[in-house]
Amino acid sequence: MPSWIRFRSGEDPDPRFTLANERTYLAWIRTATAFVASGLGLEAFGGNVLSPVVCVALAALLLVAGGVIALVAFVHWISAERALRAGRALPVPVMAPVVAAVLVICAIVLSVEVMNS
Description:
Elements lengths: L14 H31 L6 H35 L8 H22 L1
């Protein structure tokens, strides 16, 4: 690894923990990608089923949530790696309830819209 990427403090943790941390990061990136793809798909194809205002609002929510998830996933990956190297407790994953809330909002709004059309 180039010296500018290396973590400078702490000791190298067991590689299994570092790799597990990377897998978790990649899972969050897949979730962010799914949110962005869902937002784009909703905007492109949701106009036939949903009202334009609802379609744009949900698409924007999904797109913004995807970007936020990707950013927070990166910050969490760095924080977890530093905690592993310092022998500290791992940070609490704050995005899980946010993702759940976004999905609940989308499910409720989509259910109401589909039942009303």
